[in-house]
Specification:
It comes from Stylosanthes scabra. This protein is of the alpha+beta class. It is 17% helix and 30% strand.
């Protein structure tokens, strides 16, 4: 612990001052709709208490149809990037040697960052594995080969006591894949906090695949010295972007049974001339909805938002890309950034539209900045449920036609199901099978 704190203390004072000024930690506690909201809680600093060679910050992510990337960090500079794995505890019939990297950020030097892709793997199977040829054994369960399957969706996670509570609630009920639409560690250039975050989430991220996209707290630009940003994020959380023909770790897609998941980047170019826009066009065009009836999208800055916080920050991206999603009949769009929960009806171009995506904001994982308490009044008829509480969401894809979305309020000791709705896939809707722009049937402006 002291080693990590010492690293923080020697980091440039200017960066700490800027982070403190730009990202304050307000204490919020109010009565809203009869529910008493708990105040913000302090950041957890999770130390590394084992040897330099022992793997830490272990997490896994999906790669292609039947493979898994195992990522971990060691402080020792001579440890091997080896993963041994098998279907029985202590018996490793497979062995893969991966690669390692590291990075420098001002006076901070990362540990050795290892990545190894293992497989092919069987669906719905528990695998046991260890990293580096020694150390503790971990295990994970692969997603099923067919429906049903369940996603957990949490944005703006951070590493506070609320974060720990949210993750405990998530872990209390099984799921298949964890989706995070940006703002992971809230390190904000304080690199040891990336290490602390990795250690905090390891018990969860090592046993279910975590698929993430970037938020504003991952940018970490410093003029002239680090002008391009995302140095730590890209090094620590590599996603399978090459497999979906993307040229950037900041946006990609992947497939699970009957579902295509698209992770977009709110903080890289997205206009019609950009690589991301062209990639999204091509990615959507490849989807066969007869085989993949569900399409969901995740991004950080919400396109629709009735909270006072971050008003309009996703508007330029919405104007650039919304039509692509609408014409492709995307079913759901999840966002973070606003530290509250909000569920909208199906929308296209600021109007209710039964053939548009359902928009949901889930930026309530447990961040250190507190909750976004103030929603605009009177409520907009397009916004069907909104609440400034910490929590997490679950999307259970039941079959090719039906899914159930639920939001679980993080009420300290219990995760209370506060909102839930059945959803029909647009690919199975006869009313939405015609020309997209002929399907607007309700005209309520946002």
């Amino acid at each position: 612990m002291w080693k990590g704190l010492k690293s923080i203390a020697t980091f440039p004072l200017l960066i700490h001052t800027l982070c403190f000024l730009l990202f304050p930690q307000p204490l919020l506690s109010q009565d809203v709709n009869g529910y008493v909201r708990q105040p913000a809680r302090p950041t957890i600093v999770t130390p590394h208490q084992s040897s330099e060679s022992e793997p830490q910050q272990v997490h896994i992510s999906l790669v292609g149809k039947d493979k898994m990337r195992v990522s971990w960090i060691t402080e020792g500079k001579h440890t091997k990037s080896v993963v041994e794995y098998g279907t029985n505890s202590g018996e490793y019939t497979g062995k893969v040697t991966g690669e390692h990297t590291s990075y420098q950020y001002f006076f901070y030097s990362s540990g050795r960052i290892h990545n190894a892709v293992i497989g092919p793997l069987e669906a719905s199977t528990t695998y046991f594995y260890r990293c580096g040829g020694s150390g503790p054994e971990f295990s994970f369960k692969t997603p099923p080969s067919k429906l049903p399957m369940e996603f957990v969706i949490v944005g703006d996670l951070g590493q506070t006591e609320w974060t720990a509570s949210t993750l405990q609630h998530v872990d209390s009920s099984d799921y298949d894949v964890f989706l995070l639409p940006g703002d992971l560690s809230y390190a904000d250039s304080q690199q040891p906090l990336w290490d602390s975050f990795g250690r905090l989430v390891q018990p969860y991220a090592s046993k279910r695949p975590w698929m993430v996209t970037e938020g504003n707290h991952e940018i970490e630009i410093f003029p002239i010295i680090y002008p391009h940003g995302f140095k730590a994020y890209n090094a620590r959380w590599p996603m399978p972007f090459q497999e979906s023909a993307s040229t950037s770790n900041l946006y990609y897609s992947f497939d699970v049974p009957s579902t295509h998941v698209i992770m977009l980047g709110s903080y890289t170019d997205f206009d019609a001339k950009s690589d991301q826009y062209k990639w999204l066009q091509n990615d959507l065009a490849k989807i066969d909805r007869s085989k993949t009836p569900w399409v969901i999208v995740l991004l950080h800055a919400p396109w629709y938002n009735t909270n006072d916080a971050h008003q309009g920050e996703g508007e330029s991206m919405r104007k650039a890309m919304e039509d692509l999603l609408y014409q492709a009949r995307v079913d759901l769009v999840f966002a973070g950034h606003v530290h509250a929960y909000e569920r909208f009806t199906r929308i296209y171009d600021n109007k209710a539209d039964s053939c548009g995506p359902m928009y949901v904001t889930v930026g309530d994982g447990g961040n250190r900045e507190g909750l976004a308490m103030n929603f605009k009044n009177p409520p907009n008829p397009l916004s069907l449920f909104r609440e400034p509480s910490f929590g997490h969401g679950r999307l259970r894809i039941v079959d090719e036609t039906r899914a159930y979305w639920s939001w679980h309020r993080n009420n300290d000791t219990d995760a209370v199901v506060a909102d839930g709705i059945w959803i029909e896939s647009l690919s199975r809707s006869k009313a939405c099978s015609g020309t997209p722009h002929q399907k607007v049937n309700v005209h309520e402006e946002l």
